[in-house]
Amino acid sequence: MRTRTKLSAAAVGLAATGALVLSSGGASGHGYTDLPISRQKLCQNGTVSNCGDIQWEPQSVEGPKGFPASGPADGQLCSGGNSRFAQLSSPRTPSGGAWPTTRVTGGQSYTFRWQFTAMHATTDFKYYVTRQGWNQDHNLSRSDLNLTPFLTVPYGGRRPPSTLSHSGTLPSGLSGHHVILAVWTVADTGNAFYACSDVTF
């Protein structure tokens, strides 16, 4: 019931700030990943505290589509270029600790899951991962990532259900802490949704 109340509050907040969302070409659909758990979901469920607005609207990390050729600027990838959610792009949590990680195994199948609070016509879902030896001490940049997605799920303009899972093989040859950047590209607006998940291979 508490979660439902929070979502209702988020919906009211979004309605109040509709002009801001529309000014950036906002889509009517919103969503985030919870497998592996994303930074915005860790804030929403209270695992990470002092996150600011994102704790009420983990589904709203929306930015320009076209990644990696365009899209959010380097250093703002995990927040989708949204200054309101800048803490998601920091290499440390708002309290200064490390982002909690999900343990995964390279070369094995993994089921990724998205949760949608509203659905939108979808081009595809793409998943990128950091390179071995990436710089963990600064905000995530394109130079930290393998810019060829290790998984692409075409969606042909269809609208996803409220929960969507799909499986893919995780890259081999990685060890230690990495970040998976998931990108949900909307078909009929100029935007996409971004989610960063911290994992340990």
TrEMBL record:
Its main location: secreted. Residues 1-29 form the signal peptide. One of its GO terms (molecular function) is monooxygenase activity. This is Lytic polysaccharide monooxygenase. Residues 79-93 have a biased composition (Polar residues). Residues 62-102 are annotated as: Disordered. GO terms for cellular component: extracellular region. InterPro entries: Cellulose/chitin-bd_N, GlcNAc_Chitin_IntDeg, Ig_E-set. Keywords: Monooxygenase, Oxidoreductase, Secreted, Signal. It is found in: Secreted. Residues 30-199 form the Chitin-binding type-4 domain. SUPFAM superfamilies: E set domains.
